[in-house]
Amino acid sequence: MGVTGPPGPVMDRDEVDRALARLGAEHEAIETSLLALQDHAGRRLLEGAELTGVTKERWASAEASITLLWAYFDAYTAALRGAREIRSRRRWSSRDDLVELTELLRGESVTVAGSVVGSVAGSVAGSAEAPTLQGTGKLSQSFSLTTLVDRMNELYASSLDMVVTADAVWSALPARIDLLAAELQRTRRLAHSVGVRPGEHPAGDDLERITRTLTSLREQVVSDPLAFWVRAQGSSAPGGGRPDTTVYDREARALEDVRREIDAVLTVRQDAEQRLVRLRDVLSRADRTLAEARTARGEVLAKIAATEVPVVSGPPTALQEQLATAAEYRRHAQWHRLSPLLESLEQKAEDELLRARESLSAVTQPLAVRAELRGRLDAYKAKVARHGLAEDPFLIERYDAARRMLWSAPCDLRVAEQAVLRYQQAAAEQLTAPRVPEQGGLEDRRGEQ
Questions:
Q1: Is-contact 172 218, C-beta < 8 A?
Q2: How many CB atoms lie within 10 A of CB 134?
Q3: So where are the chain's domains?
Q4: Would you say 71 and 30 are in contact if contact means Cβ atoms under 8 Å apart?
Q5: Which residues, listed in sequence order, are joined to residue 110 by a DSSP beta bridge?
Q6: Which helix or strand (DSSP H or E) is residue 199 part of?
Q7: How far, in Å, CA of 380 to CA of 419, rounded?
Q8: Across the strands, what pairs with 243?
């Protein structure tokens, strides 16, 4: 086997010293990073956790990468130590020393045993994150120091990304889930005190579902944190992204909805008695209005003839029964049932009062028409009197005919209206007709003058 020379021109002493300084600084930086990774809280948690899913797969790959990273670092350290020893043999390095140093610093002088790399490959077969010699048939592999630094940087970045990502999820989500779970327990106790229980109220069922979801979510986050990570678009930095809080946010909103429902139930408990009193008052007014309408209907049937008078219904018994049920709910502190019943009853009671008032208006409409006709008749009579036609026999006859119809019982409104119209027409004709003075005495002539 021939001896290969150094790659490129032989380095001088200054170039060797600068290269050793640079490689030494890189060695310190890599060593500091590796020790920080070794002591990282996320890595310790990953080592002690019972992982599942994608986190379990990626941690097996990351562990293999970290093992290989330390193997590369040990080989790098040994090569750098050897180069430093050669350089320290003499103050002014000889030509042979410089040739050897050039080979060490620039050539593929770092050899990593295939057994080390092969053991890593056995734990993560085919992993893109852990370069291996598996399947190459080689017992070892050689690298230049520069290539080895690049390999270590790649392995470190992928391993750190996995550790930082898992630690970020564990730092963010479980604590928030625990706080929400504590709030959930307080809400459950409050809900139980006002009768909001599973199977009896939808909000109680929602609390049970939220409890199950949060319990399952926490278990999944602890065992598979990487499943709850959203990587930032275009970011290549380790840990670039954010925890996925979609499920947590949804359950937090659901719990807030339940709290609002319970607050509504609590409000019902505080003002239930006042609302029941108002309901009784509205229904009582509706009953009185219906009673007045029934009385008015009898009066209309007695006083008005040839007209349709609508039938007045009785008070709604269903509303009274529901009101009694609401009072029963209040006595037994069943606030979750009382709340929707009161809202329904309040609307129905207002509708019932409106219906009673409309019924009264419909029943008394004929009396209102008669009153309007009477008022119109008297108004025209006063107008006729102002124009000096109060003693006109024809107008008196027409007025008396209309008045008898309007003040008799039962009154036929259609006939009475025609009589009022005839009186109006006659009055209008008399008021617009030219008046011829009579040939009389001195008083008449004075009137003309």
A1: no
A2: 17
A3: 13-166, 167-268, 269-363, 367-435
A4: no
A5: 143
A6: none
A7: 13
A8: 229
d(CA 166, CA 226): 6
In this prediction the pTM is 0.56
Q: Which two tokens stand for residue 111?
A: 């050899």
Other CB atoms closer than 10 Å to residue 327's CB: what's the count? Answer: 16
CA 123 to chain centre: 46
Give the Cα separation of 15 and 106 in Å (integer). 11
How many Å apart are CA 93 and CA 78, to the nearest integer?
A: 20
Phi first, then psi: what are they for 140, rounded to 5°? -160, 170
- Per-residue tens of pLDDT for the chain, all 449 residues: 333 445 567 777 778 778 888 888 888 888 898 898 888 888 888 888 899 999 999 999 898 889 888 888 888 888 888 778 777 777 776 677 677 777 777 777 677 775 555 545 444 444 444 444 444 445 567 777 888 888 888 889 889 988 999 999 999 999 999 999 999 999 999 888 877 788 877 888 999 999 999 999 999 999 999 999 988 876 666 767 889 999 999 999 999 999 988 887 788 777 888 888 898 999 899 889 888 888 888 877 777 775 677 777 777 788 888 888 988 888 877 777 787 888 889 898 998 889 888 888 888 888 888 888 888 888 888 888 887 777 788 888 888 888 887 887 787 778 888 888 888 888 888 777 665 554 444 344 334 43
The structure tokens listed for 118 are 């092969």
The two tokens of residue 366 are 């004929």
For residues 139 and 124, give the distance between their C-alpha atoms in angstroms, rounded to a whole number: 19
Enter the DSSP assignment of 241. E
